[in-house]
Amino acid sequence: MSVVTRIARSRAAQESLGYLGASYLKLVQGTNRFSLDPPGAYDWLTPLRPFIIAMWHGQHLMVPFVRRPQDRAATMVSRSVDGGVNTAVLERMGVRVIRGSGARRARDIWAKGGVQALRGCLKALEDGESVAFSADVPKVSRRCGEGIVMLARMSGRPVVPTAVVTSRYLQFDSWDRASLGLPFGRGVMAFGEPISVPRDLDAAGIEAARLRIETDLNAVHARAFAQVGRIDPVHTRKGASAR
């Protein structure tokens, strides 16, 4: 293990980076003029709590903006080194972290803590905490996996597609096409219609629920970007690739 890796794995380094990351996000949150789409979103979201906040992975640092001081929320974060830094950031943003992540191969799910983390998410929902959940298939951007469908099916809680965007942002060339807001602009926190997943769904029903979450998440991102006068850069890039 290299010296850099050992330092990155240290609790002190992760806490320091977490402090800097959270301070930056609070600057972004405080200097952008955020609006809700639809405008009265919290009026109908509050009675739904606890619910599952569906997000694309690249939004995992901005989605905590939707949490009000009185709201309790938790999320899954991988056990990787990057996950340690993300944990430190999110905890400073008021989000409780459950360590673990899914995997594309079934045999890897246990090693990555995915089963234990899913149980933790179920317990959080039972205890009244809303859960922010990345819908993507691991390492596949903007393709919804079955994990979020299973969480909704087992918990009985609705899924709410969510997007947080700013008019000024950095776009990264990472697998999840992550974006990070910049200060001093406009922002939108957008929500889609709640999606219920019945417990008795067959395979076709599960696939239909998966596709609906994927479609609605892309739609809510497109709507949010339109509100700040931009076009979803990930959607545009995918369209260009398809052509």
From TrEMBL:
Source organism per UniProt: Methylobacterium indicum
Pfam families in UniProt: DUF374
InterPro entries according to UniProt: DUF374 (IPR007172)
Record-annotated DUF374 domain positions: 68-140
Identification of the protein by name: DUF374 domain-containing protein
